[in-house]
């Protein structure tokens, strides 16, 4: 079945560091990928829709200059958390869907980001 | 906009049947999804309804009533490994991304 790979799984870094997270569709091409954030004991909150070859669409309240999204190929989207601070510590998860026919969203394994 | 409600927590015993309800209010409807999420892991797809009625997949079934804005996930023959969070999700107005409810944490005891 369709597989979405996300890297890295864990990041621990100092405040002020920028962190890049990669999301890859391994056996299908994804013109659209999605980035979610999940705080402890809360549900997944959609941050942005990543569109191949064009600008990402951000949800209300998500700073586009803080969370940079690049979708340069049909199999790779990246999320960069710029100048991360402790309040950015969270579980970041990407998803993608096989574009042909009905297919559910498939999720990467997530990235746990801890900012010290 | 989207508003998805489900109970916060439920408990059940091994071998039992449990029904997790979800009500939704959306400005457009493009299907209702159920995902399972174990602590610290990504969600995995369980079931999907776009038409009214029951969809059965082994021990898991999902039901939808569009007129009532209501869905439920039915888990049969519960096992300890079914202890997880169950997320009800609708599709956003653009018809692309999933919008999740807060999730129902199910605890299965022996």
| SS class of chain A | mainly beta
Uncertain runs of chain B are none
Q: Characterize the main sheet of chain B.
A: 6 strands, mixed
Q: What would you report as the Rg of chain B, rounded to the nearest angstrom?
A: 13 Å
- Assembly type of the shown chains? heterodimer
Distance between the termini of chain A: 37 Å
Give the termini separation of chain B.
41 Å
Low-confidence stretches of chain A: none
What's the count of strands of chain B?
11
Number of helices of chain B: 0
Q: So how many helices of chain A? A: 0
Give a quick account of the main beta sheet of chain A: strands, pairing sense, barrel closure. 7 strands, mixed
Helicity range of chain B: under 10%
Outline type of chain A: globular
Coarse structural class of chain B: mainly beta
- State the order of secondary-structure elements of chain B, H for helix, E for strand: EEEEEEEEEEE
The chain pair with the largest interface is:
A-B, 22 and 19 residues
Beta-strand percentage range of chain A:
over 45%
Mean pLDDT reading of chain A? 92
* H/E series of chain A: EEEEEEEEEEE
Average pLDDT number of chain B: 91
